[in-house]
Amino acid sequence: MCGYLVALCALLSGPAATGPVLAADINIGTGSRAGVYYRVGRAICMLVEAADGPSCEAPPTAGSVFNLNSIREGKLQFAVAQSDMQYYAVNGEPPFAGTGADGNLRALFSVHGEPFTLVVRRDANIKSFDDLAGRRVNIGNPGSGQRATMEIVMQAKGWTRADFVLADELPASQQSLALCHDKVQAMVYTVGHPNDSVAQAVRLCDAALADVKGPYIDELIEKNPFYARSLIPAGQYREDAPAVATFGVKATVVTSSEVDADTVYTVVSVLFENLDRFKSRHPAFSTLEPASMIKDGLSAPLHEGAQRYYLEQGWLQ
Question: Based on the domain organization, do 27 and 89 belong to the same domain?
Fold first, then answer.
């Protein structure tokens, strides 16, 4: 029944595992139901269970920072997180300065690119990030990657929350309606495109995407290798919409060194042996290739289970 998942079958038929992780019960921290992280987790679980693997859950969570803290605390076995937040967790930098460097964090692979996206009401006359001063802005919920990235951009710009008339903290699932109801004039989202929440704002209230660029963004990119310039293509949400210049990160899948190597090997092997099926689950996954997935955006060491599979495939020397 288990086919090539011999190691996993042994785990399932043997005595119960000890420690924080049980191979028969995988969980993957994701993000808002409106975001692409949720699609990543659900797609991985679908593939694992379709391969006669263990039961797999991918619940919605507060996002990258929450996920990385939960991995550290042993509350999640796997999680999706922004590449910049992965770097900060590994090195114990804000927003993880209080807990210090996470020496147990391990990388598996990266997935789609995530542009830092600024969505605005057209009647607010906001043409770029620089125009947000004195406006009503949703900066994202605490624990989310978009909130952490927004704070980094604000710091680079020399701004604090006091520079906005309102700095709301709505999660991604609520911010589009808040924008349409004029509770906020702008919202930020670090997300793969196309995205349902952004599409909703454009469709329901004729929202637009605005540029995030300038010398302060150039400096962020130059100083941080996990950032890169990004272009949201013209016509992404409206046929007449121009291309939008911004910067972005990678979505990555991480785990802990405490997670059993055979369990990690199973998750990784199922994903890559069914990569075409995974790519069909969302347009943001369409350009994924193993060569870039096993290195781009990964700051933590590879987990030994993932490394074993990549060596078998000849992808690592």
Answer: yes
